[in-house]
Write a structure and sequence with these properties.
The protein has two domains: 200 residues, 3-Layer(aba) Sandwich (Rossmann fold); 67 residues, no CATH class. Helix content is 31%, strand content 24%. The protein is built from eleven helices and twelve strands.
Length: 321
């Protein structure tokens, strides 16, 4: 088995608020190896985007890492000096942001952006511009010379997302994080971006971490999946095992809410009853217990991590029994 490119161990992150710290991540773990596509799924507010930002230490000023490590090739990037962290971003690690419109400076052309993104390269300007042109062609944009002269607002949402993917790949990063890359797109454009990402994984030699609430995206793209709930990883499995043999009650509830799984037309969409816990005061036991049909008295105690198989683990009392 290949050694991990990226390894997150017991990572905890709290956001400072006027009413107290919000524990957005609580002991999260993740391993990603070269050639793998890793999916992270869960409801809004479960900690997916916080985990994505922590991979490159792009957390906001209100966030504080209270424990754990984020190791890239064995080195904890959270302990590096700010200059050393900046040197990794865009070269060894890159991110495709959720909203491509806010990812670009509106007063710079696409060409200016893509040349500036190569600031750590010592290649001459013409070489950088030529590489930018090649990357735009690689992501399926016709007339890349025209695109280079345009401003972000002159492109459609799908075109901007393709440019964002091209920008992230400019320096051949070893870790590529895609934070809900299709959320802001219409269905047709989403299909085009998924097709692009599927083609990309055939040639890309690093690891791709895809954050999404769209189970169909994860099923199409990913090799392994991490399911998050209330800041914790509650299940981890190969994608086929997760979709066909999920063990955690929360994962099963998520899959049951996916419209693609409905055998017949229905006027009522299923939901998961209840609400996410208040992470200013996280539950001492199982976070999902108040919404779980399998809850029992022992769920008042924090559940153990149960290893169902070498590639399948679950944070649940019932599975570990």
């Amino acid at each position: 088995m290949k050694p991990p490119l990226l390894e997150i161990t017991d990572l905890s992150v709290a956001y400072q608020t006027d009413t107290g710290p919000v524990m957005a991540l609580r002991g999260a773990n993740l391993v990603a190896r070269a050639g793998e596509v890793i999916g992270i799924v869960g409801e809004s507010g479960c900690g997916k985007s916080t985990l994505a930002a922590a991979v490159m230490n792009l957390l906001p000023a209100t966030a504080k890492v209270t424990g754990g490590a984020v190791r890239f090739l064995g080195q904890d990037i959270l302990t590096l000096a700010p200059q050393a962290q900046r040197a990794l971003r865009g070269t060894a690690m890159a991110m495709i942001f959720q909203d491509p419109m806010t990812a670009f400076n509106p007063v710079l052309t696409i060409g200016d952006h893509l040349v500036d993104f190569q600031h750590q390269s010592r290649a001459p300007y013409r070489a950088k511009l030529a590489r930018a042109r090649d990357q735009l062609a690689l992501v399926g944009l016709s007339d890349p010379d025209v695109i280079l002269r345009r401003y972000p607002h002159q492109l459609s949402g799908g075109m901007r997302q393709r440019v964002a993917i091209a920008a992230a790949l400019l320096m051949n990063p070893q870790v590529l994080v895609a934070d809900e890359p299709t959320t802001a797109l219409d269905v047709t454009t989403e299909a085009q971006i998924l097709h692009l990402l599927r083609n990309l994984r055939q040639t890309y030699q690093g690891t791709i971490v895809v954050i999404s609430h769209h189970l169909g995206v994860v099923a199409e793209l990913c090799d392994r999946v991490y399911v998050m709930y209330a800041g914790q990883v509650v299940e981890q499995a190969m994608v086929d095992d997760l979709f066909h043999a999920a063990r955690h009650p929360y994962t099963r509830a998520l899959l049951a809410c996916d419209p693609a799984s409905f055998p017949n037309l229905t006027p009522v969409l299923p939901t998961i009853p209840g609400r996410l816990p208040d992470l200013r005061d996280p539950p001492k036991g199982c976070s999902f217990a108040p919404r779980c049909a399998l809850r029992s008295a022992r769920c008042t105690v924090a559940p153990p991590w149960a290893q169902v198989s070498p590639s399948h683990g679950v944070l649940c009392h019932e599975v570990g029994a």
